[in-house]
Fold this sequence. Notes:
Elements: E1 7-11, H1 16-32, E2 37-43, H2 47-50, E3 58-62, H3 71-81, E4 88-91, H4 100-104, E5 109-113, E6 124-126, H5 136-142, E7 180-184, H6 197-209, E8 213-216, H7 223-231, E9 241-243, H8 250-257, E10 262-266, H9 269-276, E11 281-284, E12 300-303, H10 323-326, H11 330-340
Parallel strand pairs: 1-2, 1-4, 2-3, 4-5, 5-6, 7-8, 7-10, 8-9, 10-11, 11-12
Amino acid sequence: MPQTIDKILIVGPSWIGDMVMAQSLFITIKKNNPKVLIDVLALAWTKPLLERMPEVNKAITMPISHGVFGWKLRKKIGHQLRAEHYDQAIALPNSWKSALIPWFANIPLRTGWRGEMRYGLLNDSRVLDKSALPMMVQRYVSLAHPAPQANKAPNYPKPLMIANAPSEQFQISLQPNQKRLVLCPGAEFGTAKQWPATHYAELANTLIQQGWQTLILGSAADKKVANEIIENMDPKARSALFNLCGKTALSDAIDLLDTADLVVSNDSGLMHIAAALQKPLFAIYGPTSPSFTPPLSDNAHIIQINVDCGPCFQRECPEKHHNCMRNISSQSALKILNTRK
């Protein structure tokens, strides 16, 4: 085992929101040892996030798709990484295969939660007490500390990403004193996490009437819900709305989120990015729980109602009524906004 840790390889998570929360681990590691170099091995789509985290020395692209085993390629990558002479690896995913590359790379200290029985692959394997560490960010940050402290709930710094100015293509002008609302109506997890398009439309209508501009951000998969929002809006308000779903790269979305005066989002990766940018944020939760993966920001306001059937953590509403989201009115969000002014 190395006496000092000068260089760490982090095997990063695959999901955007999880990678945002992983920044709390990176910040903690740098706080404990400011001179340590942190490299992160992760899927290509997370690279724009890592590029905006000053704690990360280098983002290494994992050329294997999410869910693919890829034994030979993992072995090849591991052997290539031997030249980097890492002192420690921390595997954030709990899968067996995520611990293979650090093992192939002969990294002397290999840390992570036991997960899929990773005996041998990890030589600093921790047994998770979920009741002691109920939040994902706590589970990440705990891995920055020695094993005896593994299940003591750590203090965790909030993620703090650094955005760039939007590229020229997405420099959308604002009128003097005009505020910008950014809507993030998509959710990769499933439609159960989506606040109804009609509610987003009502909120946008009201704020545009008050002089706001509105952007809709999301992937190509979110074009349908974005179009539903527009269809339910007052035609007079549409001139102040810009639908960018499917038009932006993740890097562009990050930089545009940083221009917002208010972000309204489902529980999604973009929600976590907005939180890490410390933007005023209304995070709307239905079938999932903010007790596990909340937005990590003092500027975030969580909106959730109690329902008998939730949180169910299902991709589609098993009861077919979607009351956990449908019964959160646009007026309730506006009321919160008015009390913040």
